[in-house]
Batch of 2 targets.
Target 1
Amino acid sequence: MSDISFTPARRHVLGLGCERGTQPAEVLALAVEALKAVGIVADELAAIASIDSRRQEAAILAVARHLAVPALFFDAPRLERETPRLKNPSAVVFARVGCHGVAESAALAAIGDNAELVLGKIKSAQATAAVARGGCRKPDGRYGGGNSRRQPAASRFTFRGHIMHKVIYDTDPGVDDAMALLFLHRHPEIDLIGITTVFGNASVETTTRNALFLKREWNIPAPVAKGASVTIDAARAEREWPAMVHGDNGLGDIEVPATIDLPLDPRPAHRFIIDTVRANPGEVRLVAVGRMTNLARALKEDPEIATLVKDVVIMGGNFYVPGNVSPVAEANIHGDPEAADIVMTAPWKVAVIGLDVTSITTMSRSYLGRMAAEGDGAVKLLDALSQSYIDFYKHAVEDGMMVHDSCAAVYVVAPELFSSISGAVRVVCGGIADGQMIIKPDGRRFPPGDWDDRPSQIVTTGIESEKVIDLIRDTLLRV
Ligand code: BDR
Ligand code: CA
């Protein structure tokens, strides 16, 4: 048994019932339709509730996973006997035809009196019809017509499948890396279990020092492991650090002590990744927002981890927009193309969050300033270290900045804010297109080529930028 709290941002329960044998994809489609019908987006959901749906548990858990909310499985007899009612949520109720009352009684159980409020709001569309057919709980405990007075129900639930995303954050802080770090640290559904550093926005000594500095300033419990300082192909020529973007010290040249008195994890980053993935099989989500060197090293040393991670979310690449370090390449991929190709072609699930979506997701100086005024010291520090990065972006953004790495962090909890295509992805290694990522979209036929027999990955091509920015704000302002 566990408890769930309802915040103003997440106050809706989706009551979900489905007939035996319904496929998860169908349940998901119906759930999404119901949410649309009542004008509620997934990140306003606190939970999915279901009652006596044990045979459909897998389908409901799949929907819960997709919507990144916990699934609550109610048990009718227990419902009558035990525990306090949950406070203050409203509900969306969706009953699939054929299981009258089931879904809304689950929601009623979760929300008690407040149900009426939202049930009353459900108008038109299929969801309304389903609610009307399903009826509601009467004082005698039976289900009745949709308009009768609802009786507060004592609630009891078994809390299963609660989604806590276990994240290892592979990063080169980096101004936008810093914002994403605070997001991962503060999001209630993310368990940040490790920070691994890599060279990129500065040397690995500097990015590691920065990670320790932010860990100390923001009180982040996750261990920090130091990673790669050179490309996976050591023969590649070294390049200058992008000091004009992130400052000489990688954090916008705010004052940062030369050393931070905190211990590092004794393992190199790639070993930390391997050990942590093996200790949590099927659970770890790797969020990589720098060069892909640590991930490629981990794969080289222990290829089996590809089958043991839950998935990989990367910030990198560009597909239908120009690059930012060459006409065709983005910085993280261009910084170590061979490593990126290893990552993209390994048999794991990768979601690519590239410039197609990050370059249109910007936060203005004034928006960040308002956050800083409202927020605590952590947000004020973020505001301070972002100022010169915002200055750098004046060529492309009107007094604001692209929040590249935070888009990848947001994808972990809100993939529904992105649209995507899928296909095998390769990285050009060498020549004038060095570091270009190219997708062969699934379903397109070409003569035999270098994309054949490579895993199909997700490439994001669209984003609901305003919602992403607001989710970042709401998360950073949580304390
Ligand atoms: C990426 O490169 C770095 O400058 C940023 O931190 C981000 O990860 C954007 O191209
Ligand atoms: Ca980065």
Target 2
Amino acid sequence: GAAMAKSKFEYVRDFEADDTCLSHCWVVVRLDGRNFHRFAEKHNFTKPNDSRALHLMTKCAQTVMEELEDIVIAYGQSDEYSFVFKRKSNWFKRRASKFMTHVVSQFASSYVFYWRDYFEDQPLLYPPGFDGRVVVYPSNQTLKDYLSWRQADCHINNLYNTVFWALVQQSGLTPIQAQERLQGTLTADKNEILFSEFNINYNNEPLMYRKGTVLIWQKVDEVMTKEVRLPAEMEGRKMVVTRTRTKAVPLHCDVIGDAFWKEHPEILH
Ligand code: ATP
Ligand code: ATP
Ligand code: MG
Ligand code: MG
Ligand code: MG
Ligand code: MG
């Protein structure tokens, strides 16, 4: 505190580097699971997409948005999530290390805390870790391009993985054979293999797998039953109460085109 006497050791604080994020810019924290290729194997993730794992990731991201300040949108796919802090945020004086460490530690502890709710009969075998990075984007266009980049990555990986695992699980190819079969193929070729060999129309695959998950703040009517205390003759009865809360709501929509941003102008305002 201000009234506290300073010791002669206080000068060592000057060795701390200034990591203030440039003002008026969007601050993005992206985290990613450490060695989740192995983590997925050890915990018997369904291939190519384990929906329990994706829902757990989203629960952790919602917890981050609700516990921390100033996050306006988040986007997740696979073992990664990106969090966007509002341009004008002055949380922790915009120190990059504070943004990043609070996001990553809150996310990691939530992943362990909520594990059992999503993986009922799959025990957590060891403590997972996540890396984090901070990137600052100077304009709405660069921020939109950042999110488009992550969603394009989701699409490319998911299309590849969908064909790869169909070849392995349904055609009995070894992983090496499946990889060789897909070497040099274009998007159209992969769609064609899926359709002609497996009768899969890629566009009918679940949106969560193809688009990832966008979290934005929306007003939600929450219906809950409440124990009635008074008057005495009604004691012990339950009453249905509706109240409106603002929550981080998951969407599996396209963010590359303009439609999403036109529909939600408040995000970038
Ligand atoms: P690094 O530590 O460098 O990030 P990594 O093994 O985590 O290494 P990533 O590129 O992050 O590599 O890839 C994450 C991997 O985790 C995927 O390739 C996939 O094998 C696995 N994975 C993550 N989420 C899921 C999921 N929901 N369903 C199935 N597999 C998943
Ligand atoms: P911030 O988020 O800014 O760090 P804080 O409440 O964590 O806020 P700190 O300056 O880090 O503030 O102080 C940690 C506080 O946690 C202590 O003041 C004390 O109240 C409590 N605390 C931490 N460890 C112990 C402990 N072992 N026994 C009792 N109290 C503890
Ligand atoms: Mg990586
Ligand atoms: Mg990873
Ligand atoms: Mg990853
Ligand atoms: Mg503290």
